[in-house]
Fold:
Amino acid sequence: MEAVSTNIVGTENLINAAIFNKVQKVVVLSTDKAVYPINAMGISKAMAEKIAVAKARSLISQKKTIICCTRYGNVMGSRGSVIPLFIDQIKNKKEITVTDPNMTRFLMSLEDSVNLVLHAFQKSSQGDIFIQKSPSARLKDLIQALNEIFDSNNKIKVIGTRHGEKLYETLISREEMARSKETKNYFKIMTDQRDLNYSHYFSEGQLDISNENDYTSHNTKILSIEEIKKILLNLKFVQDSLND
Structure:
């Protein structure tokens, strides 16, 4: 119920308050878990996005409060990030526990996530959802990069995929890709402008959707070990760990 109270009810309350007080722009922060959700976190975040887009559609003609969303994966070093755990295991000479070495995850820094929000503030129209193009890494390559950075050779212990854990992250579904605009560093998912008259969709489909693919951590740029090391060495918490 906390997920419902925070991500669904809380999002609607905040958006309603912003509209009532004539706030110029609202950016709702979402996550890759909202795409093909398999747990309460993902489902509630998906509903938060739907609420934001529905409110935005209702305001298109009024041109007052602009409501948009950003969507990204786990930020490196944030709460729940696996990198600090790996570093702790390496420094304490423990086995490195990994669920599936072939899992891929987007690598996004805190600076990247802030820049995505700022981009949304500057470029958004009603109901847009923004995604930053990010490289990804295989967990086994991430671990190897950390072992090399800390001059260690800790063994890997495969513990198996946990409940609610995906092999790869999906930031944009293929249905969304069909109405997305792509720039050098970002994707912008445009508001779905279809009405509720679904009758003609029984006889006419969208060929462009059939030609699209999801945007995932499996089909984005997958970094080499050296490229991963370069990114990690620019993170302050990694630098601090090296100096401890």
